[in-house]
Amino acid sequence: MTIELSIVIPMYNEEDNLEHLFARLLEVLTPLKITYEIICVNDGSKDKTLKQLIDCHQSNPQIKIVNLSRNFGKEIALSAGIDYAQGKAVIPIDADLQDPPELIHELVNKWREGYDIVYATRRSRQGETWVKQFTAKMFYKVIGRMTEIKIPPNTGDFRLMDRKVVNAIKQLPERTRFMKGLFAWVGYRQTFVLFDREPRFQGQTKWNYWKLWNFALDGIFSFSLLPLKIWTYLGLIISLLSLAYASFLILKTLIVGTDVPGYASLMVAILFLGGVQLISLGVIGEYLGRVYEEVKARPLYLVSDLWGLEYLQLERLN
Length: 318
What we know:
By secondary structure, the protein is an alpha/beta fold. It has helices at about 20-30, 50-60, 75-85, 105-110, 130-145, 165-170, 180-185, 210-225, 225-255, 265-295, 310-315; strands at about 5-10, 35-40, 65-70, 90, 115-125, 155-160, 190-195, 305. The chain has an 8-stranded mixed beta sheet, with helices on both faces. Helix 2 links the parallel strand 2 and strand 3. The protein is elongated. The relative contact order is 0.14.
């Protein structure tokens, strides 16, 4: 049977949301009168998420489960779900219900108009602190200036992708995966729909500011070489300023003689240049570390168990 629509949901400790999530999804998908599947990727949950997913699968075979061997992170879990999705169109969505399933109707309608990617852009972000909203806004501005890839602002993973887009994304093998950037990088015919993002239904977010900071760095270092160029230009500027200052000291010595050198100014210069060198080494190290991860060529993820997708595992083994 041909599957027209695949819903991909990465999950980590989402037991409080599952019942309401599936109720809203089924309420939306049933009236569409298309064949569908719901791919749930259990990313090493420590609560009863997996047990509840198995119960849901047994009562509704269209709910299928990819159980990863451990927690690999949301971006990898999302990639696993996309790998196993068989639909002509694929929609990633979060399990916390901040992205409303009711928007799927609009995404599908735009897809039927001929668009290959239909992404959901947040008109407002309810339930988030002003700090979170401000930092998110600044991140999209910074990465928009630093990369040639046009990553849509205020847009998460919630979108519809045609099968040819999914097949293109599956060809991208990098280990440090910034999915928003990969979705934009492949191109194709894109459009958007607007929505108001709701507060999380139940539970606590898994993202703290440290994780968000590292996630932002992954996005910048994965899609821009500008950080490396900055330190090249900064080194050139400092060298020119040093040459100008040296010329000034030579002229001053020839004209008015020598002064007793100042200890404070010497220490400031040493500490400043030392700091610049350490920061530049850190930036180089970020890129080098990512190269190291790539050359090891480890698999993105390991699957422990499958429910409803066993036939795909047999095909891959053969």
